[in-house]
Amino acid sequence: MSAGARTARTQQPPVLRILVAEDNEVNQTVALRLLERLGHRADVVSTGREALARLEHAAYDVVLMDVQMPDLDGLETSRALCARWPANQRPRIVAMTAEALPGDREKCLAAGMDDYIVKPVMLSQLEEALARCAPSGRAPAQAAPEPVVEDREGVAAAVLDRRVLEQLVKDLGGAAPLENVIATFLEKTPSVLVTLRDAAARADAAQIREAAHRIKGASAMLGARTLAGQCAELEQLVRRGHVVDAADRVAAIEAAYRKVEAALTPPR
């Protein structure tokens, strides 16, 4: 074997055992495809409690942790994980969040998370985060850097940011995997919209937040920034106790979704 071949082999990153804790099916599909392309093995759970239960019975090198999940969110799950296992015996925790607000990174690190990436997660972004991880029993390569928060005002008015879709084609390895992700989004979102509309009619703040969060995460992943922004705004307003005009905001969200649906549906 040549010296160059030996060097290439030694530089190949190790295969990591990864647990994806993510409640959104679109984001689950994208995450698994990206990890597959990077050569890693991954399992998926939908709640924080499921993540903790899985970790009791299986060893993982990394947990990709959605920050906002029903039942037990990513921050609470990370605190519980760190309380159960010492640092040298637990997996590295990488936060995944659809928002990049001031103080979010600090909250994640204070909860025991080791790294922080912002959705929509791209292949290069995930590869960089996993390069800072190592199989169990070996120290991480380096500390997490400050995340880069892009200025999105210039594309906020568009129905779809085509640059996101073009990047997903590259990251997922072709148009067919992206078509599967879009099909899942178009299949699942209408029922979540029904849940959101019903919750707004009942002024059910918790249900509004959960449904708005689910739509926000999936739409952001596909570059539907206006729809994602409307859902994020509703989520924040309801969190602060403002539910009076929730029905009107839900109607606007439904209208925005119909535009996204039309943009994502190929002409017959």
What is the fold named in CATH at topology level of the largest domain?
A: Rossmann fold
CATH-assigned homologous superfamily of the largest domain = Response regulator
Shape: globular
Total strand segments: 5
Helix content, binned percent: 55-70%
Tally of distinct domains? 2
Secondary-structure element string: HEHEHEHEHEHHHHHH
What is the CA-atom radius of gyration, in angstroms?
Answer: 19 Å
Approximately how much beta-strand content do the residues carry?
5-15%
Characterize the largest beta sheet: strand count, sense, and whether it forms a barrel: 5 strands, parallel
Provide the low-confidence segments as ranges: 1-10, 138-157
Strand order of the largest sheet: 2-1-3-4-5
Classified by CATH, the class of the largest domain is Alpha Beta
How much is the average pLDDT? 85
Number of helices: 11
Termini gap = 55 Å
CATH second-level architecture of the largest domain: 3-Layer(aba) Sandwich
- The structure class reads alpha/beta
